[in-house]
Amino acid sequence: MFKEKYNVVGVMSGTSLDGIDLAHIVFTVENNIWEFEIVTSETVSYTSDWLNKLKIAISFSAVALEILNQEYTSLLAVIIGDFIKKKDIKNLDAVCSHGHTIVHQPQNGITLQIGNLPQISSLIHQTVVCDFRVQDVQLGGQGAPLVPIGDQILFPEYDYCMNLGGFSNVSFEQNKKRIAFDISPVNTVLNFYANEIGLDYDDKGSISRTGICNQNLLNELNAVNFYQKTPPKSLGFEFVKETILPIINSYSIAVEDKLRTFTEHAALQIALALPNKNGSIFITGGGAYNDFLLERIQFHLPKMKLIIPTAKILEFKEALIFALLGVLKLRGEINVLSSVTGAKKDHSSGVIVRA
To answer: What residues have CB less than 8 Å from 302, skipping those under 6 apart?
Structure first.
């Protein structure tokens, strides 16, 4: 018999590098209806040293990556252990941790999330469910996005569920199947140019708002081949580094204009990606705080209702859903949909490491 209640911690570090999200969540399931409570949550920011390491890790050698993986696993263990102790969390069923993506090249059969080494379990003295992407790539999938099954189970009332993080991605029901895919970079690019003028990010899109949209740059960005591909499809920072930044940097324009143009590009690609242009979009991720980006999305989707949830769900939705993926893995149930990733079959992904 399956349990009806699960007490877990979800842990997520996203490509926008805004820190490690931790959420203590209680799930209840009855007659296949899932409910959740985010009991307590916290984001632990990276030190400048770690931020710099993670930004350049894509260019590390195999040996350097191995060392980084060991160090990051130790860092995660300390942060998770401190969170459990500080919040006085007892009787956990598991810690469900995504780790941090360094390399994502599903077309080459490669994806690497650091922080998932088996010793994390003994370091924090808890059962850990982790490494959710590798199996999907081995089954011919994109290894991403993995959040859509959580959208389907926890937020079925919305026409679209969209995350505006390092990248934008969307999930929705089509012909009785969950469809999901990455749309375009968002905060990976916006934060990059905000950093150039000494800011961590463009707060509420206030800098972008003052810029001028460069039509030639916008046209060139919109012509990028990725946007013509049909799903399933996913993006990694490699795409930003090798394709997007070189295009933007070939234009000698002010940073404000680069931010303005890229915001327009991201909003337009979101509008183009949705098969139906009306209904409701449930928006989470750091980009939901970018008022100007939301305005431009609304401009391109005038009949769509944009719904922003409570701060707790907005900021910790990915930690919440990786916690759910971990629980589904503990139950031996499907937690990755082939209709989303392109894998050979639906499957129960992840590794369970018991303390």
So the answer is: none
Three-state DSSP at 189 gives helix
Cα–Cα distance list, 189 to 66, 258, 273, 339 (Å): 27, 10, 19, 28
Per-residue confidence in pLDDT tens, the chain, 355 aa: 689 999 999 999 987 788 999 999 999 999 999 999 999 999 999 999 999 999 999 999 999 999 999 999 999 999 999 999 999 999 999 999 999 999 988 999 999 999 999 999 999 999 999 999 999 999 999 998 899 999 999 999 999 999 999 999 999 999 999 999 999 999 999 999 999 999 999 999 999 999 999 999 999 999 999 999 998 888 888 899 999 999 999 999 999 999 999 999 999 999 999 999 999 999 998 899 999 999 999 999 999 999 999 999 998 999 999 999 999 999 999 999 999 999 999 999 999 999 8
Q: Please answer whether residues 205 and 263 qualify as being in contact, where contact means their C-beta atoms are separated by less than 8 angstroms.
A: yes
- Its pTM stands at 0.87
Structure token pair of residue 262: 């890229």
* Contact in structure between 98 and 318 (CB atoms under 8 Å): yes
Q: Which two tokens mark 106? A: 């599903």
Query: What does the alpha-carbon distance between residue 319 and residue 331 come to, in Å, rounded to a whole number?
Result: 19
The answer to whether 293 touches 163, Cβ cutoff 8 Å, is: no
Chain centre distance of CA 66:
23
